[in-house]
Amino acid sequence: MLEFFDSSAKLVGHSGSILLPDDDEITRKLAMLFEGQCEGLGPTQAARKFGYTKQRYFQLLERFELLELSQEILNPAPDQAPLVLADSEHYTTELLDHVHLETPFELLVPMPPQNSPKLQDQARSSERFNRRWAGYATAKEPFRLKQSRCSEPYYRFVQRNGERPEDYYFKSFLATVDRDEVQDLTVHYPQRWHIEEFFKFNQALGWHRAGTLNLNIRYGQMTMALVAQAAIHQMRQRLGQPFSQWDASHLARELFGALEGDVRVKDDTIQVTYYNAPHRDRLRQQYENLPDKLQQEGIEPTLPWLYDFKLDFRFR
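RE: above sequence
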């Protein structure tokens, strides 16, 4: 059994020890997680021992657990590595090494400004860039991170915006493998804004606060929020404008919160009747005679988790 980081900042084992540099944050973070999760020290004491907060401990832990969970769900083929798009706060050597060396994923993350090429240097070496279209050019080059465990270099993608040298501005990204930088920077990375739109429209479903650090409770909360989001998304699509532009809070205030009714069972159908519902005509058009509508769309109208009953709605 190993004991990490005694008072002399060493890795201590049964047969000896290894002195670690004072600035070796990677090993320190991994040692904290190891002692907290595997040695029985627990999150609070492990974080205190290594000089981190408990919140930071769980942030580091969730990074690795989320990737492991995604790997179990996607089970990607060896030649079809999914691309993970991250924010600049995830630009850390330990995460880049972990993704590249220990997972089937590839990672693309913005580089902090201090690691981006200086504007004047780029202006003088414009031949490094490939002009893609008016006002946009890209460059790609190998890049090595200090203290990285990876023997091969990563790749820095640089995009240059502006048509004249005096108007140039740059943004750099780091990829764990050699990829098509134009496709990644102009198509793939902008797609992550869909995640921002998701939280903008649905944060009131429970995404705007954690409530607890218990991961099992968090997973359950996120599962229920995703189920609710899927149902609301289908409803927005069916009802169209203006409902498709309403966020979850607006829907709750203007629609769900104003619904009153009763529930009855008739033969093999559960009938939900709403009285004085807002936007009644639009709702009636989409949800009355729901079993027949579902059959016309090729969807089985019975609910297996509800003893194979059908569900129908009435608006009075």
